[in-house]
Specification:
heterodimer, A: 253 residues, alpha/beta, TIM Barrel, 8-stranded parallel barrel, 12 strands, B: 223 residues, 9-stranded mixed β-sheet, 4-stranded mixed β-sheet, 13 strands
Chain lengths: 253, 223
């Protein structure tokens, strides 16, 4: 069995890491540089860095800040937030990103995905989807940190983006994010049932056991977590040890 | 002799994870520069060819800057090159991403799509995976002091397929499929994985390349 990646997610607003609480208020949880370094040293497999307001305000993420956060950290960064041109992608890569997460802009401009892949390769482009349940096995794609409806069926959108060539899917459950009551297993399972590319599950981690569940039952290839790590309740080591104890392969350092 | 003749040149061909590789090299030495100038390549001590991107776009970037001849000549002199990911793939003769495209042909071989593996096996191959020596040992190479079966970070849909088995430097097994994860021909190395993104152990490879790649011999020959 391959290694399952455990990926801390930094939601960025201005100079801070924030945590949306049910997509309403944003709570400041710390400094991106300190948190990223801590996770690197604790054995994070990658780091996700998402500017959660860039799209909303139609601006770019702060590439200089990204550069500072990445300094001295030698694991992959997936970066997103306000990416809407090939230049934006180039700037993010040059600031230290390895993979680019695209959400809002691609929903309205699917061809942007094809264009980006032609230049940067599939492995560089991650489709970021915020899914909110609308019925039995039905989810709608949201954007801008779960604020904006798109009217687009999340599952259909993911299938389309896979055809366009995205290399990975980062999926957040809008309903579960920030509640720490467990991942939305149904959603993850549904995507795993058809996705030929790796799926990173996000939203709802409250304990290492919940992370285990989304791997075993939700069949996630990677899991991303924020609150559970940011507040120091569990360390990456503890989480990985718990997973290893349940016969899940993880990279231990 | 040019001013930058003893520098490590990180090739800029308009795409790629330059920042990551710069950061990793800079961790060990300040004696490096980023350049897309063929003259800089010719007078370099060693060259790093980074890569994130599609094969054709990468080769186009090299061609537009007149770097294809410069890199081939550099390798022909026995000087050290480290290709990473797409940079490693471009060292081979031919790439098959969005059609067939000529590579640098420094190491004979092809770059092909991962074959269809068992149902449920994901491509791209993304994440940490173990590398092990194709031959007995990798002492005396850039992998010196890297324990066999160290985890390295991979992200790719295409694999290196050198024509001659002797160019297979390391192997990796992804869900039961063994593939060549690094190639070598003398002082030319190509890693499909990202040493610059593989934590402390990956950094050891960068360090070995910088300090231990037998550049001295080549420099003497040239100057």
């Amino acid at each position: 069995m391959k290694n399952i990646r455990i990926i801390p997610q930094l939601n960025i607003k201005g100079p801070n890491v924030v945590k949306p609480v049910n997509t309403e208020g944003l709570k400041v949880v710390g400094n991106p540089r300190d948190l990223a370094m801590r996770y690197y040293q604790e054995g994070a497999d990658e780091i996700i860095y998402l500017d959660v307001v860039a799209s909303l305000y139609q601006r770019n993420l702060d590439f200089d800040q990204l550069k500072k956060v990445c300094a001295g950290i030698f694991i992959p960064f997936t970066v997103g937030g306000g990416i809407r041109s090939l230049d934006d992608i180039n700037n993010a890569l040059r600031a230290g990103a390895d993979k680019i997460a695209i959400n809002t802009y691609a929903v309205n401009n699917p061809n942007f995905i094809s264009r980006a892949i032609k230049i940067f390769g599939s492995q560089c482009i991650v489709l970021f989807v915020e899914a909110k349940r609308t019925g039995n096995k039905k989810w709608e794609a949201y954007t801008d940190g779960g604020r904006e409806k798109t009217g687009v069926d999340a599952i259909e959108w993911i299938k389309k983006a896979i055809k366009l060539g995205v290399g990975e899917i980062l999926i957040t459950s809008v309903d579960h994010d920030g509640r720490r009551q467990g991942y939305e297993i149904d959603l993850m399972k549904e995507i795993a049932s058809f996705s030929p590319v790796p799926v990173i599950a996000h939203g709802g981690a409250g304990t290492p056991e919940m992370i285990k569940e989304v791997i075993l039952e939700g069949r996630a290839d990677a899991v991303s977590a924020s609150s559970i790590l940011h507040y120091g309740e569990y360390s990456l080591k503890e989480i990985k040890r718990h997973l290893a104890g349940n016969n899940i392969n993880v990279r231990l350092i | 002799m040019r001013k930058n003749s003893n520098k490590i040149i990180i090739i800029d061909y308009g795409l790629g994870n330059l920042h990551s590789i710069k950061k990793a090299v800079d961790y060990f030495t300040k004696d490096w520069t980023v350049s897309g100038d063929p003259a800089a390549v010719s007078s370099a001590r060693a060259v790093i060819l980074p890569g994130v991107g599609a094969f054709a776009a990468g080769m186009k970037g090299l061609a537009e800057r007149g770097l294809i001849g410069a890199l081939r000549e550099f390798a022909g002199k026995g000087k050290p090159i480290l290709g990473v990911c797409l940079g490693a793939q471009m060292l081979l003769s031919e790439g098959h991403e969005f059609g067939a495209h000529q590579g640098l042909n420094i190491i004979k071989g092809k770059v092909v799509k991962f074959p269809e593996l068992a149902k449920g096996v994901k491509i791209p191959h993304i994440g940490w995976n173990k590398i092990y020596p194709a031959k007995d040992s990798w002492q005396g190479t850039i992998l010196q002091d890297v324990p066999a079966k160290s985890d390295m970070y991979f992200v790719h849909s295409y694999i290196l397929q050198p024509e001659d088995k002797k160019n297979i430097f390391t192997l990796t097994n992804y869900e039961g499929y063994e593939f060549c994860s690094a190639v070598r021909e003398e002082n030319v190395y190509g890693c499909q994985f990202h040493p610059e993104k593989s934590g402390e152990i990956g950094l050891r490879i960068i360090k070995n390349f910088i300090y231990n790649c037998h550049c001295e011999r080549s420099n003497k020959e040239l100057y």
